[in-house]
Amino acid sequence: MDSAHQLSSGATFQVLKIPLGFIRVLQWLFAVFAFSTCGGYSGQLRVSVDCMEKASSNLSIPIDFGYPFRLDQVSFEAPACEATKRERVFLIGDFSSSAEFFVTISVFAFLYSLMASIVYIFFLNKYRQISRGPLIDFVVTVVFSFVWLVSSSAWAKALSDVKTATDPDEVQLLIPACKVQTNKCGSVHGARWSGLNTSVVFGYLNFVLWAGNIWFVFKETSWHKGAGRLAGGGASQKQAGTFTQQPYNPGGLDQSGNFSPPSDYSQVGGATSSNQM
């Protein structure tokens, strides 16, 4: 109970109002959207095979697929248009590597953003006192920015290929009965892609968030603070050198009321006297 009370008393939720903490919360939230829209996807398309022998026709063949999009393992039964004989047909393509890479980055980004937010809220003073903490945070932020760009681009390309491989017009070409001119094949409906399109958008939004947060994390590092100290020290030395210069004395009355000639005049007078001697 005491440790929990100490943590709650030392919590600094004000950090969530500055870009350093606020962007971390957005990263945590957008990472959830990214892996949920991609990893939780399941779609279905339907094709029809109208055989010359109507008894063998199937005008609504469902084909289900989903994450991780190993389409070459997705199969369905289509009529062979020979009595009641049926054939098993497999889709083409394996796009699991890009999809799993994207989801993996999303999960790790979610975990790191959550951990960083907890550190900012409960251990902000220690985070700023230990120089190694901000440096690690900066390096991890740069790495995640890069992998978000790579994974989002790879997943966008894979999604385009998935759409092509699951196009009902393309799937019809895989059915042997559809290659016979006397049989008629068609598409009933295709899959819906709004969820996967959204996952690509969230992928690039995560890249923008992580890349934009690089500067705010860099400001917490000793590299930025050291550069600030050097700049401040140079400016103070320049000002000190300026104010230590002796001002020009044009001559006048001193504190005792006697006339004080200018320094140049005194030097000239002294030199004249010595010449006369």
Please bin the fraction of helical residues: 55-70%
Return the string of H and E elements. HHEEEEHHHHEHHEEH
Spatial shape = rod-shaped
* Main sheet attributes: strand count, strand direction, barrel closure: 3 strands, antiparallel
**Oligomeric category:** single chain
Determine the structural class based on helices, strands and strand pairing: alpha+beta
Task: Please state how the strands of the largest beta sheet are arranged side by side.
Answer: 2-1-5
Distance between the termini: 96 Å
Mean pLDDT: 82
- Unreliable stretches covering 5 or more consecutive residues: 1-9, 233-238, 240-248, 263-277
Number of distinct helices? 9
Counting DSSP E segments of at least 2 residues, the number of strands comes to 7
Amount of beta strand: 5-15%
Rg result: 37 Å
Fold and architecture overview:
The termini are far apart. The protein is an alpha+beta fold and 277 residues long. The chain is rod-shaped, with a radius of gyration of 37 Å. 58% of the residues lie in helices and 14% in strands.
Quick synopsis:
Helix content is 58%, strand content 14%. With 277 residues, it is of the alpha+beta class.
Features:
277 residues; alpha+beta; 3-stranded antiparallel beta sheet; two-stranded antiparallel ribbon; 9 helices; 7 strands; 14% strand
